[in-house]
What we know:
Layout: E1 12-16, E2 23-29, H1 35-46, H2 56-64, E3 69-79, E4 82-95, E5 101-112, H3 121-135, E6 140-144, E7 156-157, E8 163-164, E9 174-178, E10 189-192, H4 195-198
Parallel strand pairs: 5-6, 8-10
Antiparallel strand pairs: 1-2, 2-3, 3-4, 4-5, 4-10, 6-9, 7-9
Helix pairs in contact: 1-2
Amino acid sequence: MRGGFPWGIGRRLAGVRANKSCMELTIREERPDDCRTVGELVEAAFRPLAFSDHTEHLLVARLRRSEAFVPGLSLVAEAEGRLVGHVLLTRLEVVAEDRSAATVLGVVPLSVLPGLQNRGIGSALLREAHRRAVRAGFGAALLVGHADYYPRFGYVPASRFGIRFPFDAPDACCLAAELVPGSLGGVHGTVRYPAAFFGETPEA
Ligand SMILES: CC(C)(COP(=O)(O)OP(=O)(O)OC[C@H]1O[C@@H](n2cnc3c(N)ncnc32)[C@H](O)[C@@H]1OP(=O)(O)O)[C@@H](O)C(=O)NCCC(=O)NCCS
């Protein structure tokens, strides 16, 4: 099946792009018994990447146990009985100069198993996460990520909204998306990550 899948809500998704084959994909909320496999999946996804510090799986574990965690916004992609992708959206704040804070979501991180990348799994996960985020009352999402990948989902440089990240990252990689049009109007300042983002590793 070619692009433009009718990805629906929380349901079985037929026809993930593959070279010549199709596989049925389900996007669903992560369950407690998925956590170990999700950790392995995230670690595997980032293992080949030179820019990674290879601790993203530990970050996911910390965020899952933090106040920034939003139940229902840690999603897995399942195909043929195994987990093939994961996305986690957690609360972030954008703090203005007058110290007022706006709550948005951070995408930290998006992961697809190396052997199954470029088949639409990451796209399906992120689009479904956006839909669920809106239903949960969130209007915007921020991330630091691939400048060539995320614009297709509505992400633009966060600097356009006057939002800065506390990292030394290229402007083109510091991205924001209005999941609800206009939701970032009046939101500006510096992104404040939850303590868990920088915290210590929880015990397994
Ligand atoms: C990045 C990632 C999540 C994308 O998920 P995916 O399922 O492989 O990608 P999709 O099938 O949804 O999308 C494929 C498209 O994205 C592009 N793409 C995939 N990975 C990309 C990357 N790292 N940078 C830029 N574009 C990328 C492909 O070229 C393809 O483009 P096309 O539709 O124009 O042909 C996945 O490759 C992954 O887990 N990578 C390792 C971990 C990572 O980098 N996570 C994101 C951190 S910001």
